[in-house]
Amino acid sequence: MAKYKIAWMPGDGIGQEVMEAARIVLDKLQLDAEYLPADIGWEFWRTEGEALPQRTIDLLNEVDCGLFGAITSKPKQEAENELIPELQGTGLTYRSPIVRLRQKLQLYYNLRPCKAYPGNPLNYREDIDLVVFRENAEGLYSGVEFHPVEDDLREMMKKYAPALGNFDDVAGDDMAMTVRVVTMRGADRIIRRAFEYAQKHGYPTVTLVEKPNVLRETSGMMVRVAREIQKEFPSIELWETNIDAQMMWMLKNPENYGVMVTGNLFGDILSDLSAQLVGGLGFASSGNIGDELAVFEPTHGSAPKYAGKYIVNPHAMLLTTKMMLDWLGETEKAIALENSIAGVIKEGKVKTYDMGGKSSTLDVANAVAERL
Ligand code: NAI
Ligand code: MG
Predict the structure, then answer these.
(1) C-alpha separations of 227 from 15, 111, 190, 231 in Å
(2) How far apart (Å, rounded) are the C-alpha atoms in residues 282 and 288?
(3) DSSP H stretches of helix in the chain
(4) How many CA atoms lie within 13 A of 41 on its CB side?
(5) pLDDT bracket for residue 99 (50, 70, 90)
(6) Domain ranges for the chain
(7) Ligand 1 pocket by Cβ (under 6 Å)
């Protein structure tokens, strides 16, 4: 029996070809794993009305981790129009399988390392080595939303939040609300993971990126929790910054930062900016991580216009594969893979269009595999 069971989820579009690239390096590394194909994506929405079938969730509950390519999502009406005739008009609503996966399997944080590999012509600056810890299960993306805002709800909320009275002249229909939920449990576990990561990987600081001067309660709770946790990690400094100012600092002095931790929406924004500083979507890897399970995916989507052309950059997927190896405890293989990727980038011979080259997706994967 193989040492690991890995759910293999190429998904849609270029998800398929970058996963092929991942398999080339995994085979070369001779990882002792069984790769179990799992259904996810648009085809399953169209034909079954469910982009993340229950059998995939069941499988994920049995494996060590999952590796995922990309999915296609479309707006509500368009999604319904593409259902097979038998499923049309049955009241099905499309839900993003990746968001559901994070919630259903309690993959409560999203880890996004962004490193400037020497020789990458797309680096904004050399010496960038950032890691974003984005809360994945609560915050402004908790799904607690209201429209219209009913009178009884408004009256009740006003008792506790008098500021709502400022909108008394607005009709419930003309008002929408999204609630930002932060829990002690959620704040504690993500901030703790960030400190543990900083300690393990030798980062001297953890930067909490929030907005406590305005979001007094939710960001305030994050700050209180962070200060408490820092006491358990005396060798690591806690820096506290505001999300807006942080955007400026990231462009001015990105090399000053290392591990950053933040809520769901701010993390979404911060991680896209961080990725662009080191080459953009072709280099952006990520992991959705919980206590027992993790699903790794490149940040990019299915890029339909390139699907099947084998021209997109697989480095994002290969760096994602490296993260998976790290998480499995296959440290030597993870280091070897990262060194090979760095070597190919530095040499600058084999590169895809986004880096100014003409190599194919699989050329890059093969060049990386050759160095292993
Ligand atoms: P996208 O990430 O698929 O592509 C945007 C553009 O970025 C591409 O047209 C291409 O120019 C570039 N790009 C992306 N990956 C690249 C790579 N590996 N190498 C080189 N260039 C690359 O985002 P888009 O076009 O907004 O969305 C397309 C579909 O993907 C949509 O259906 C969207 O919902 C879905 N999506 C899925 C995600 C996921 O699976 N987690 C994340 C983002 C979008
Ligand atoms: Mg995003």
Answers:
(1) 40, 21, 13, 7
(2) 18
(3) 14-29, 42-48, 54-60, 76-81, 97-104, 151-160, 184-201, 218-230, 243-252, 264-277, 315-328, 331-347, 361-371
(4) 20
(5) confident
(6) 1-108+284-372
(7) 70-73, 98, 281-282, 297, 300-305, 312-313, 316, 354
User: Can you give the length of the chain in residues?
Assistant: 372
Strand partners, 284: none
Query: Nearest 5 degrees, angle CA 184-CA 186-CA 188?
Result: 65
Cα distance between residue 363 and residue 314, in whole Å = 10
Q: Which of 262, 229, 259, 257 is nearest to 243 (CA)?
A: 262
How remote is the C-alpha of 309 from its chain's centroid?
25
Is the bond preceding residue 148 a cis peptide, omega within 30 degrees? yes
Q: Is the dihedral of CA 208, 265, 163, 186 positive or negative?
A: negative
Those residues with Cβ within 8 angstroms of residue 318's Cβ, 6 or more apart along the chain or in another chain: 21, 22, 25, 337, 341, 364, 365, 368
Three-class SS of residue 238? strand
Q: What is the DSSP string of 296-310?
A: EEES----GGGTTS-
The token pair at 93 is 């609503």
Ligand 1: atom nearest CA of 305 is: 9
CB burial of 104-131 (b: ≥16 within 10 Å; e: otherwise) equals: ebebbbbbbbbbbbebbebbbeeebbbb
Amino acid at 355: M
User: Percent of the chain scored above 70 by pLDDT?
Assistant: 100
For ligand 1, atom 43, the nearest C-alpha belongs to 301
CA distance 133 to 208: 10
Separation of alpha carbons 125 and 118, rounded Å: 10
Q: How confident is the model at residue 75 (pLDDT cuts 50, 70, 90)?
A: confident
Tens digits of per-residue pLDDT, 235-253?
999 999 999 999 999 999 9
Phi/psi for 343 (5° steps) reads -65, -45
Cα–Cα distance measured from residue 183 to residue 99, given in angstroms and rounded to the nearest whole number? 19
Reported pTM: 0.93
> In the CATH hierarchy, which fold is given to the domain comprising 1-108+284-372?
Isopropylmalate Dehydrogenase (3.40.718)
Give nearest CA residue, ligand 1 atom 6: 303
Q: How far is the CA of 31 from the centre of ligand 2 (A)?
A: 30
